[in-house]
Amino acid sequence: MFTPAELLEINTLLKPENKIVILTHYNPDGDAIGSSLGLKHYLKAKGILAEVIVPNDFPKFLKWMPESKKVIIAEYKKKLASDMIAGADVIFCLDFNAPSRIGLLGDWLVKAQGKKILIDHHQQPEQFDYVYSDTVIPATSQMIYHFIEVMDDEKLVDQDVAECLYTGIMTDTGGFRFRSTSAATHRIIANLIEKGADPAMITSNTWDTNTVSRLHLLALILGRIEVVNEGTVAVLSLTRNELKEYGFQKGDTEGFVNYGLSIAGVKMAAFFMEDLYENFIKISFRSKDDVDVNQFSRKYFSGGGHINAAGGKSYDSLAGTIENFKQYIGKEEFLNIK
C-alpha cells in the first residue's frame, strides 16, 4: 500500500478542479475494465470526475458494466485520448506495470506531466510517481477496494462501484478458484454483495454470453488439444484462417487456455493464436502450484505476468513457435513440471 505520507499527497491531488484520467493495458480484460470503472465511480461519489482511456477495444461481454459505453478507446479517438493524457493533472495507471504494456498510450504516458499513480499486481513494476504494487493480491480490482479502505471511504462504495470491482475480481480469479484467492478476497466480495453487487446477474452478463463463433472455435481447439512432457503440459492453438472462418470476435477466445489446465495431471497450459491482422503469435500461459510461467514467458517470449498466469509473443510461425516451446519446457528445471 502507499505510505501514509503518499496517501496524504494523493488525497490533495484528488480534488474536483483537477483533470484525472485512468489508463489500463492493451487488450483490456475483466480486471482492467472492472478496476478502471470501479475507480471512476468511486471518484464520482467523491464529487470528482475522471475519464477512462483504453488503448484498444474490449470484449462485448464486459460492456454491460455501468458507464462502460463512455470508456474512450484510443484506437478510435487518438487525438482526444492523446490530448486528455497530455492535459491530465493526475493519471491513474491500473493493471499494468510498464508503459510498454499499454500500446499507443505508452509514449503519451511517458511524456505526460501529470502525477502518475500506479495500482497493479504484476511483477517488476517500473517507476511511477506513486506505486502501490502487490503481486500476492489476485486482482487489481481488489487493490482498488483496499485503496478505498485506506482512504476511509468505504461508505462511498455504491452499487456501481460494487458491480465493477466484483466483475474484476471474479474474472481475474477464474471465478474465485485460483490459488491467489484469499480469505481477504472473499471478505471483500461479501462486502460488495452487501453494497449491491448481484453475483447471479454479474456472472450471467459476463460469462453466459457465448457467441456461435466462440463455441465453434472452442469445439475446434478442444478436438485437437495436445498433451506433452509426459502428460504435464497441454498445448492449444488456433490459426488466423480458423479465426476468420468462424467469424472471430474480440473476446471469443477468453479462457480457452484454462481448458488445458483442467486436464488431470497437467501443470501448465499454453495457448498459441495467430493475430488476426499482424504477423505475430499471441501466447497465453496458465499453471498450477509453483510452476512459474511468468519467469518462463519473460525468458523466452518477451512477456510476463504472474507466477500462474502470463502472456507473451512470438514472431516465428505458429508451428515454429510451438516447436520452440516444446524444446524450452524440456530444458528448464525451474518450471518444476516433471
Structural key phrases:
six-stranded parallel β-sheet; 338 residues; six-stranded mixed β-sheet; alpha/beta
Written account of the structure:
The chain has 338 residues and is of the alpha/beta class. It contains 13 helices and twelve strands. The strands form two sheets. Strands 3-2-1-4-5-6 form a six-stranded parallel sheet, sandwiched between helices. Strands 7-8-9-10-12-11 form a six-stranded mixed sheet, with helices on both faces. The relative contact order is 0.10.
Strand-pairing-aware structural class: alpha/beta
N→C terminal distance: 37 Å
The dominant shape is globular
Q: How many helices? A: 13
Record field, number of beta strands: 12
| Main pleated-sheet profile | 6 strands, parallel
Q: Can you give the helix content as a percent range?
A: 25-40%
The Cα radius of gyration reads: 20 Å
- Beta content comes to 15-25%
Average predicted local confidence, pLDDT: 94
Question: What letter string, H or E per element, gives the SSE order?
Answer: HEHEEHEHEEHHHHHEEHHEEHEEH
Low-pLDDT residue spans: none
Strand order of the largest sheet: 3-2-1-4-5-6
List the helices and strands and how they pair.
Blueprint: H1 4-13, E1 20-23, H2 30-45, E2 50-54, E3 72-73, H3 78-86, E4 90-94, H4 105-111, E5 115-120, E6 130-133, H5 140-150, H6 159-172, H7 183-194, H8 199-207, H9 212-223, E7 226-228, E8 233-238, H10 240-245, H11 256-261, E9 268-274, E10 281-287, H12 293-301, E11 304-305, E12 309-314, H13 318-331
Parallel strand pairs: 1-2, 1-4, 2-3, 4-5, 5-6, 8-9
Antiparallel strand pairs: 7-8, 9-10, 10-12, 11-12
Helix pairs in contact: 2-5, 2-6, 3-4, 5-6, 6-7, 6-8
